[in-house]
Design brief:
The protein is of the alpha/beta class. The chain has 3 helices and 3 strands, in the order E-H-E-H-E-H. Helix content is about 20%, strand content about 10%. The longest helix has 8 residues.
Length: about 90
């Protein structure tokens, strides 16, 4: 398993991007797709997992918590990476 490797972290990109609708999370069907890699790899790796690919504020929260009561668990991502809009607009957080 991946747990046997001495990894600092595992970065997984979710395959949830559809290029035709790149301007809006509301119209891009990729943002509505379920997480694929989290379920596939969390059972194989208990270390730090970083997820990337098509996250919105709502879906990012859901990807990091697993329990119905909103408490964090060890089954979600430990951190998330955001890049697409930040790379093209570095002033976005302002």
């Amino acid at each position: 398993t991946l747990d046997e490797r001495n990894l600092a972290y595992l970065l997984l990109t979710e395959p949830r991007w559809v290029g035709k609708h790149d301007d809006s999370p509301e119209s891009d069907p990729g943002f509505q797709m379920p997480l694929m890699n989290l379920q596939k790899f969390r059972g194989e790796y208990r270390g730090v997992m970083i997820g990337a690919g098509g996250f919105t504020p709502t879906s990012s929260y859901a990807a990091m918590v697993d329990d119905d009561d909103g408490s964090s668990s060890n089954n979600g991502y430990d951190a998330l990476a955001f890049g697409r809009w930040f790379i093209s607009n570095p002033d976005l957080p302002k």
